Amino acid sequence: MVQELEFEKPIIDLRKKIHELKEITKKADVDLSSEIEKLERRLQNLEEEIYFNLQPWDRVQIARHPNRPTTLDYIDYLFEDFFELHGDRVFGDDEAIVGGIAKYKGRPVTVIGHQRGKDTKENIRRNFGMPHPEGYRKALRLMKQADKFNRPIICFIDTKGAYPGKAAEERGQSEAIARNLFEMGGFTVPIICIVIGEGGSGGALGIGVGNRVYMLENSIYSVISPEGAASILWKDATQAKRAAESMKITATDLREMGIIEGIIPEVRGGAHHNVEEQSKIIDSVLEKALIELSHLSQEELIEQRYDKYAKIGVFFEKEPTEIK
């Protein structure tokens, strides 16, 4: 069952009313077709009004939806013969990041992504999608292998952030993320990153340095959560909605700032409503990106990646005008 979001309540209520009228039509000898038709038109208009005018906080809610598709969900639909690889060869295996080798339209690729759970038990096992250092070192091991064997790297980003616990810090959390940023900048194969849910801070960047970075329409990407920003700015986490509106964390915002290359549309209401259809939309973007990047040489791939990130945050100051 799909969990109801706050802003979707009018839509859900209207759908229930239409369903009730259809059941009455089936069980009783009453023709309610005209009333049903009117309500269906009203439903269509209501969906367009709500889904095409979502506010930043609404998108945060969708990005965090418990039924939102995960990395493994998309792997099932997009790739063939996925073979998961485990461990960082230093400490252990971090289940908050999954990765392995697969085939995409007959071509070998390496797929890596954050993985959260869909229930309490799985979330605990996967640490709610918040990786430890060994998760990032596992990802780096797989990326180095991909670079060696000339396999494109595809990363799915979906994390609140890297795990901030004491044990993670003791094992070198910051160094592990920094190492990934450094190494990913120099790989000679195409790297495509897709934010499928939450892209939180360095936890997202640890597998987020790519030649192409895309975001699903209702995903978010930021240096801190809205709740965290509200706690810092106004000493009140309940101001998260206000923070989300001012932080520029939506796909549209990041596209305008040149941080991502494109926005991947979602099925009406969000990706959780139809994983298969959503995978088809991602597939078309992914295929096009791989074809475009395959025409670049190794040197061009590195240069394009470097130039992309060198431009982020650059600004120009205007010369002060003389007051007459």
TrEMBL record:
<comment type="function">
    <text>Component of the acetyl coenzyme A carboxylase (ACC) complex. First, biotin carboxylase catalyzes the carboxylation of biotin on its carrier protein (BCCP) and then the CO(2) group is transferred by the carboxyltransferase to acetyl-CoA to form malonyl-CoA.</text>
</comment>
<dbReference type="InterPro" id="IPR029045">
    <property type="entry name" value="ClpP/crotonase-like_dom_sf"/>
</dbReference>
<dbReference type="InterPro" id="IPR001095">
    <property type="entry name" value="Acetyl_CoA_COase_a_su"/>
</dbReference>
<keyword id="KW-0443">Lipid metabolism</keyword>
<dbReference type="Pfam" id="PF03255">
    <property type="entry name" value="ACCA"/>
</dbReference>
<keyword id="KW-0547">Nucleotide-binding</keyword>
<comment type="similarity">
    <text>Belongs to the AccA family.</text>
</comment>
<comment type="pathway">
    <text>Lipid metabolism; malonyl-CoA biosynthesis; malonyl-CoA from acetyl-CoA: step 1/1.</text>
</comment>
<keyword id="KW-0808">Transferase</keyword>
<dbReference type="GO" id="GO:0016740">
    <property type="term" value="F:transferase activity"/>
</dbReference>
<keyword id="KW-0067">ATP-binding</keyword>
<keyword id="KW-0963">Cytoplasm</keyword>
<feature type="domain" description="CoA carboxyltransferase C-terminal">
    <location>
        <begin position="38"/>
        <end position="292"/>
    </location>
</feature>
<protein>
    <recommendedName>
        <fullName>Acetyl-coenzyme A carboxylase carboxyl transferase subunit alpha</fullName>
        <ecNumber>2.1.3.15</ecNumber>
    </recommendedName>
</protein>
<dbReference type="InterPro" id="IPR011763">
    <property type="entry name" value="COA_CT_C"/>
</dbReference>
<keyword id="KW-0275">Fatty acid biosynthesis</keyword>
<keyword id="KW-0444">Lipid biosynthesis</keyword>
<keyword id="KW-0276">Fatty acid metabolism</keyword>
<comment type="subunit">
    <text>Acetyl-CoA carboxylase is a heterohexamer composed of biotin carboxyl carrier protein (AccB), biotin carboxylase (AccC) and two subunits each of ACCase subunit alpha (AccA) and ACCase subunit beta (AccD).</text>
</comment>
